[in-house]
Amino acid sequence: MAHIDDIQTQRSNLDYIRTSMNEPLLAKDHELDLARRWREKGDEKALHELVQSYTRLVVAMASRFRNYGLPIGDLIQEGNIGLMQAANRFEPDRDVRFSTYAAWWIRSSIQDYVLRNWSIVRTGTTAAQKSLFFNLRRLRAKIEGQNGQEGLNDEGRAQIARDLEVKISDVADMESRLAANDQSLNATIGEDGDSDWQSFLADTRPNPEDVVMGMKDAQTRSKWLQEALGELSDREQTIIRERHLGYEPVTLEELGKQLGVSKERVRQLEQRAMDKLKVSMGRHVTDVQDMLASL
What we know:
Four Helix Bundle (Hemerythrin (Met), subunit A), extended, Arc Repressor Mutant, subunit A, 14 helices, mainly alpha, 1% strand, 295 residues
């Protein structure tokens, strides 16, 4: 179902769009100077000018996703988040235009927002599913135009599966999701309307005993992990915590700068530390690989 903004919100969105489209374009040298001033000196004025100049790119990218029925203002806000992420990660010494680098971050941020909010049912989690979600309509329209038919047949689904390198079953599942509307679990069923859909849903949640046992298992595993980390050197512990236990993994390059070693050396130390953890954890569990994969 499409989300419709009120009149005041629509006016605010239009004002923002007009302002963004009137922002001056940056020359390459000035753009790189702004990026260096922000990255090396934390110059917030430079960051503001750099980001403000490319809000037009956010507006252009957000307009491509308007057909998903989400407010254009929200799409622009999400795109601006991607733009800020790009500004924080941009490396001016790589001699690439900021717009080229930022476009990926902006598009990714908007796509994630669409996937989270287009339907109450999670639509896609892997890169392949996201590609399928955002390309299915276009490819389906192309095939329908070529064959003069409405809807996809098995051959059409197979062609889309080949083009996007996904399973035919994934194409069929996504086609069904895009064709269906979200339904309330409180909607009544039957002629008398005495029952609703949620009355027929099975409760698959764990019982209290399973919850308690799971908590104890988690506490035990956490204790084993802390003991295993204690057997690593300070540098190895830093690498494991920064690469696997933090909210957002630190890159090998960033860790290398922090530790004063090369990116390749950090990778070698990380592998050695993981091998040590496997040996240590192997004293307690048999399926070490699965446990470490959750780090």
